[in-house]
Prior knowledge:
With 112 residues, the protein is mainly α. The protein has one domain. 60% of the residues lie in helices and 0% in strands. It is built from 4 helices and no strands. It has helices spanning 2-31, 45-54, 69-84, 100-110. α1 packs parallel to α4 (100-110) and α2 (45-54) packs across α3 (69-84). The protein starts with a helix and ends with a helix.
Amino acid sequence: MELLAAGRGELLSSIVAYVVVSGLLFAIARKMGAENAWWAWLPILDFLLMLDLAGMSWLWIFAMCVPLLNIIVLVVAWMKICEARRKPSVLGILMIVPIANLGVMLYLAVSE
């Protein structure tokens, strides 16, 4: 019975994390005037949305399938999103730091 309770806790925390990250990406996309901001709520399309916000080709989605290269692509994409929001691009590097990445997304979502 304890294993089931632990599994529910992990599931609930995963759902909460997904909703928070998707909501923040949705808010960032709306601030940037993205036509398809709702893509933030759908797996894979959320990566395409990030690439679109960063002004990068959608072909980069294939690089997301390559270990280590996917981290570099995500950092570069977030650096470009930061630049597009007129924020320091170095914030994109913080996207690989747990918890700090949520702070960066929140900052990009709520700042002018």
